[in-house]
Each structure stands twice: as structure tokens, then as C-alpha cells.
Amino acid sequence: MSLGPLRILDWYLLRRQALCLAATATVVVTVSLIVVIVQDIDELLREEAGWSEAVAYFGLRAPQMLVQYLPVAVFLSVLVNLGILMRRGEVAAMMSAGVSHARITLPLAAFGVLVAVGGFAWNEALALPTEVRAEELWTTIKHGTPNPSSELSFMRGSGGRLYALAFVHRKRLHNFVMLEMGEGGFRSPRVALFARQAYWNHGQWNFLHGMLYRYDEGGRMVEAEPIGDQPISYPIEETAEDFSRYQQKTSDMTLEQLFHFMRVLRSVNESTADLWPQVHARFAVPASALVMTLLGAAVVLSSWEERRGRRVLLAILAAPAYAALMEVCLARAPAGPHLSAWIPNLLFGILGAILLKRSSSF
């Protein structure tokens, strides 16, 4: 069965776009790896890490870098693809045959949707788990001392316990949450402990400013003991070294793990508002593939002949500006609205729509 002219055009544009994206993604990830190597090489040399450890660490960081810089790679790939077609006169030939800019953009937009779905799956199945392994390897290289962080982390402990904490120092924790569960899991908690501060002293954990809840076999709370300025201790098998070695940051959790973690916090009446922006970010970052595809097509195809310099400037600044805005929105997300992760997509999507609308051949 023969394909129609437009179907052939679609496959032609899709094939070229896939090749261009593979090339730009390789370049972007390679440059990002070089930057990370330059930043971390002194630390690796100071800790006398072996070549195998160094190679493994940087290799484990690569999948997450692809997700992080996916918008840049997609935008550049569209610029390269359509830019080459315009220089060859192929876009002009399509237009002379009655193919509008919107029709040229359509298969690219479909490809952007596929990249967005693939980016989400890549992040959940590969990038986040390898980032966790990279953090664990980095902690091993630094002899059990991870980078201090105020970000909430999550880990599974012994005796059916789940922990949430913010690691600040090897022997000091903030916003500590422990949930000890029975055979019924969340439906049959035994003990729930929340403390604003915890410190390791004389082989045991001491807790300050919080609450200690106890439950009966039916999961009903039978005791609520406040924790004030006078520290209390509770028998926990995990040591300071265990917490520093096995913690998992919320930014490195998959959606399933993140929702599980939020259930732990809700079980001890803790707010999960700060985590919802991260949930939205899991979808907003991959969705940027579609936004940047449309923006790239709009920049190249928009008829700004009298303003070519402005169009070139926009092409140069759009991707870095998007990446910077997304980083700011994610960094300030806990203090802002839940949908803050979607702000870059919204703004740049509107910009792309305006440019396409102004195109005389749209």
C-alpha cells in the first residue's frame, strides 16, 4: 500500500527530528558530564577514589542529566532540523505545494508528545533509581558522609519501620518521623514518633520537640505523649551511620515512592503540602518536550524577515531561559503554589503560540 504525500512528509520530518534529537541530546549530556567532572574531580582525588568508582559515579549521573536537560536538547533539535530544511529550501518547497506552517509543525508536535511520555518513563524507571545509586556511591567514596541537606529524605528500617528525616550532620537530624507498623501495614500502626530535632549521644537517639503516639492492635491511638525541651530516648536500631548511608531524598523518589512517603507523613498528621510541587514536577519536566518543540518550530517558521536579529537572539536565549526559570520554580516550589512547576511550560507555551499565530503561513 502506498502512502499519501502528506504521510510521506510526516515520516520524513519525524525521522529527521529523531536523528537530530539523538545528536543534540548526546552533545548536551556530554557537555553536562564534563561540567560535573570538573566540579567533582577535586573531591574524588581528595578521597582517593579509584578509576572504577569515578567512572561508575559519572555513568550513574548521566540518565538524570538527560531528563534535566531534555528541554534544551529538544529545543536545539527542532532548531537544527527545521533550520537545515529552510537552508535547503525544503520548507519553501512544502509551502509552495500548499503545506502550511501548522501542517509542518503537526508531526513535530506528535513527536514531542512521544518524547514527553518517553521522558516520564525514562525518569521513573531509570533516571531516579540510578541517581539514588550515584548518591549511595558518593557517600561510600566519602566514607559514609553524604552532602548535608535540609531536604526531607526517606528510608526503610528494621522491624517494619519507615523513617522520614532531614539529614544535617552525621549525628543530628531535623524533622524526624518514624512509623512502626504491624502486620497490617498502614492500617495497624504501633508507634509513631515525630520530633523537630534528634541527636545521637552515648549510643542512642534523643528526641526534642515533638509527639510520641502509641496505638492498640486495632490501629486506634491510645496514647499521645508530648516531647518538649527535655529530650526523650526511644530504642531505634538504626545508628547515625545507617541514616547517613541509606537516606533517600524526596527529589530522588519515584512517584510511587513519593506517594508512599506522603502517606507516612499524613499518618502522623504532618503536612504534605511541600511535596505536591515535586509531584507536579514529575509531569511538568517531561511535558516540556512538547512545549519546546512548538517553541522551536515557532522561532524558525515565524515570518520575522525584518526582525531576523531578534529571532536569532530568541533562539539563543530561549533554552537557557527556560532551564533557569524551571530551576527557580522548583527551588522555590515549597513556598509557592502547588502548580509552580508548570509556570515555565505555561509562559513558553504562550510565547510559542503567539509566534505561530503571527506566522503569515500558519
What can you see in these coordinates?
Strands 1, 2, 3, 4, 5, 6, 7 and 8 form an 8-stranded antiparallel β-sheet that branches. It is elongated, with a radius of gyration of 25 Å. The chain has 2 domains: 219 residues, no CATH class; 94 residues, no CATH class. The mean pLDDT is 82. 59% of the residues lie in helices and 18% in strands. β1 and β2 form a beta hairpin. It has 362 residues and is of the alpha+beta class.
How are the secondary structure elements laid out?
Elements: H1 5-46, H2 51-68, H3 70-87, H4 90-96, H5 101-141, E1 153-156, E2 161-169, E3 172-182, E4 185-201, E5 204-215, E6 221-227, E7 232-233, H6 240-246, E8 248-249, H7 255-267, H8 276-301, H9 308-331, H10 343-358
Antiparallel strand pairs: 1-2, 1-8, 2-3, 3-4, 4-5, 5-6, 5-7
Helix pairs in contact: 1-2, 1-3, 1-5, 2-5, 3-8, 3-9, 5-8, 8-9, 8-10, 9-10
